[in-house]
């Protein structure tokens, strides 16, 4: 029965392949590991895709809360931020720099407000999304109102994170997308956009960015000045790998930094802030700036126990597009059976594409007695895997 398959009409092969590919609909549930491309390519055991492009809850831009205390204490702007899909992965922040301000060159009180994290209805002339996530920072009379959310997972140990994002608004803010470990010294792999401009400059940094003499180490930072405008939508990708952090914008390599690559497990932070200090500059009263995000995708490994609230979900359970991967032990012993890609062959953003199905491939890939449509996809996938289709 081995070779007859090759004589089947190619349309049948295609059908079989499509039937197999359909199994990938649930954002990688069938995948045992996830592969990324490029020079910083790697394999990861877990994958998440969080999509804000068509969220039903929220939509209106919340009015600014002008009282600092109230802005910190306020609750979420919509049900979206109360649902499991959000709360099990992210924590919206409400800390202020009241205590830490004296140790920095901040000139204003900064207050993180849950009121500045919201789903916004798009008015863009683009039907591929009707909403997006917004993080807002605004200068009020007495303080800078800011926005931040942190991952509940604090044990990422290497990841490839991608964000479809843009930054708009006044000078005096910094949009940050970064890994963070509050150790001494702090460890970070950063993407930072300063609204003071210019609009083609994005800064990529490994922290600590100071050398052992306490001086700024230029090897820790790349001031990217690519052919891009951060006020337009771009896909920012950061690969934190064991020996180097690499950054890409719209698939193009923009920075590689091996100096002080973060070593220890860390969390992820997304924020939009300003404190009147020398880094962000000072925003004028009534001004504001926004970080908009259509989607975020992260392929990652974790080290040790899950650092978040609880172990959640059953194997492969889908939660608003986030798929929790379980059974790492099983995967460790068996290796990666179903290899999916975040990049190659991906037709639907956020849905990893099947690259190889090694399940049972040890003995030619199919078992005696399996019906035609049962083993056909296996062979086709095998052919695809070996680059024959
Ligand atoms: C992630 O974990 C898998 C399984 O242990 C391992 O094969 C892979 O190399 C790890 N990836 C990175 C980037 O460390
Ligand atoms: C703070 O919020 C409370 C409850 O909504 C409200 O009664 C109070 O007036 C607010 N304070 C200020 C200073 O705006
Ligand atoms: C990058 O730009 C920042 C902000 O202007 C500047 O402080 C820093 O010295 C620059 N770093 C390098 C390595 O060019
Ligand atoms: C990053 O390193 C890769 C592999 O060496 C190289 O191809 C790429 O051009 C580098 N990117 C930059 C911006 O230097
Ligand atoms: C993606 O689309 C291309 C072109 O239509 C097709 O060849 C490929 O099989 C598709 N990949 C998946 C995973 O569906
Ligand atoms: C991989 O192959 C196995 C064995 O044929 C099959 O049961 C499984 O559904 C396949 N997985 C995918 C994602 O196609």
Walk me through this protein's architecture.
- The protein is mainly beta and 389 residues long.
- It has a domain at 50-320: Jelly Rolls (Sandwich), CATH 2.60.120.200.
- The chain has helices spanning 10-21, 68-73, 84-87, 328-334, 372-385, and strands at 33-35, 43-44, 46-51, 90-92, 109-112, 117-121, 131-139, 143-151, 156-169, 174-181, 187-194, 201-207, 221-225, 234-240, 245-249, 252-257, 267-273, 288-302, 318-319, 322-323, 338-341, 353-357.
- The strands form three sheets. It has a 16-stranded mixed sheet that branches. The chain has a four-stranded mixed sheet with strand order 2-1-21-22. Strands 19-20 form a two-stranded antiparallel sheet.
- Helix 1 crosses helix 5 (372-385).
- It is globular.
- It starts with 9 loop residues before the first helix and ends with a helix.
- Bound molecules: 2-acetamido-2-deoxy-beta-D-glucopyranose (NAG) (6 copies).
In short:
Mean pLDDT is 82; it is low at 1-26, 305-333 and 362-389. The protein contains five helices and 22 strands. It is mostly beta strands.
